[in-house]
Structure formats: C-alpha cells, structure tokens
Amino acid sequence: MTTIDLSPLLRAHRSIRKYKSTPIAPALIDEVLSESIAGSSSSGNLNTFSMVLTRDAERRRRLFQLHLEQDMVLQAPLVITFNADTARTRQWLKMREARDNFNNFHGFMVAAFDAVILSQTVALAFEARGLGICYMGTTLNQASAIAEFLQLPETVFPVTSLVVGYPDEAPKARDRLPLRAYVHDEIYRPHSEAEIDALYEAREVSGWNRYLGMGPDMAARFAEHDIKSLAQFYTSELKYSPIAMGKISEQLQALLQEQGFDRKS
Ligand SMILES: Cc1cc2nc3c(=O)[nH]c(=O)nc-3n(C[C@H](O)[C@H](O)[C@H](O)COP(=O)(O)O)c2cc1C
C-alpha cells in the first residue's frame, strides 16, 4: 500500500468563518461527497446518514437565522446538514419484508456516529482542495426547527452541519492542550489539580485574550457577567450557559421521540 502524507493537510486545518461568494462547482461537490462516502467507515456498511445541501440564497438566509445569525452561513455558498438517518434503511427493510429496526436509541447513536464520521471526511476532502469549512454546533441548538425546515422525516435527525466555501481569511492555528491531556496509557488516570493547572496554563492566557479581543465591549460584558477567567466565561450566559444547555438537552430528547427514535423493545 502506498503511503500518503496527511500531515500538511492536518496541520493546515483552521475553521474558516469568512468566505468569498465564489460558487463551488457542482461536479466538485459531487466528487468530494462520493469520495468521502467511499472513504468513511460505516457501521455494518448500512451508511445510516444523509446530507441536505443548502445552496439557494433565500434558503441559506433562513438557515442563517436558525444558526443564530452566524454570518458565514450567508457568505459561504454551501451549507451541508448531516443527519443520523435510518429512514432509508428501514424503508428498504420494509420493502424486503425484513423486521423493522434502528428506530431506537442505539440506532440513533450508531447513525449519529456514521454521520459525524462522514462529516469529518467531507471536511478534510474539501480542505484538501483548498476550500474552507466550519462546523455549526447550532445545528443541535435548533435541531427541531432545522428538521422542520429541511422536512426531515421519521428517524432522520440533524446532528451537525458544515459551511463550505472559498476562504476569505487566513486565521492562525487554534491551540490544543498538550498530548498528555488526552492520552492515557492502559488505564484512565484522572489529572491532579497541579496537572490541570499546567495543562491549561497557556490556554487560559491565549483563550482569555482571544475572547477579550472579539469586540470593543467584551471587557464590559465580562464585568457585567462577573467573568474573571476563561473557565468562568465558558459556562457564562455568553458561551455555554448551563441553563441554555439544559433546555437544549430537553429539546433534543423530545426531538428524538418526535423523530421516532423511541422504540423500546
Ligand atoms: C461540533 C462542532 C461545532 C462547532 N460549532 C461552531 C459554531 O457554531 N460556530 C463557530 O464559529 N465554530 C464552531 N465550531 C468550530 C470550533 O470553534 C473550532 O473547531 C475550534 O475552535 C478549534 O478551532 P480550529 O477548528 O480552527 O482548529 C464547531 C466545531 C465543532 C467540532
């Protein structure tokens, strides 16, 4: 087997949040998607995912609202919503008089893994061709409204989205924690407080400065919310508020039921 050096591609990864309006050739999109499907592992090779492409400017404007008005949804010519999708498989099973399945929580989990694995392959395949991507976590915040907007049927659930386009910025690489933060040898060994201090030391400076630099009024907003550290920012009303996250969690559980991933036995 020939080896391919993926390092330059991985090292060049940046989430891109500013895009040119240059359209992406439909043939290039088809090529990326079909190669990515072929190049992604999938549980049982059932390929329990689907993608909805949003290119139409008016429909992107509506998605822009659903994605909490993140400008890149308006700028980038393509938004791909990745769905955990057992509907097509279940339809096939039914047509062949096989037993119904995959309309349960396990089915959802496996389909969600399939969809997310595919999304990252698609991200790399676009990046390898010089395009930029950014994931849209707001897919989960607005999953119910997005499912309705995209007319997703039973046992199809939006798990993540990518905006894709030609970059109009060249941001610096974002930091990661040292490798030892993520890797455990043979057994899991919780970090001591001193290790957490050391692991987060650099990020607590770079992250704080980054968020502080996001707008002229950020210092005032931090003060208003009594935010004194990066950690406090992350669970404040300005970022991942536990109250908002709790509400979204309830909505996601309800949507799992509404979309029919609720079979018990
Ligand atoms: C599941 C997921 C959801 C994300 N959602 C958003 C988002 O809604 N808006 C945004 O600007 N970036 C979003 N991102 C991008 C992350 O902020 C980004 O990957 C992270 O800060 C690391 O930066 P990098 O990708 O440039 O290395 C998301 C990333 C992931 C994996």
Automatic annotation (TrEMBL):
Nitroreductase domain sequence ranges: 11-166
InterPro entries listed in its UniProt record: Flavin_OxRdtase_Frp, Nitroreductase, Nitroreductase-like
Pfam families per the UniProt record, alphabetical: Nitroreductase
Coiled coil: none
Keywords noted in UniProt: Flavoprotein, FMN, Oxidoreductase
Gene Ontology molecular-function annotations: oxidoreductase activity
Family: Belongs to the flavin oxidoreductase frp family.
Protein's name according to its UniProt entry: Nitroreductase
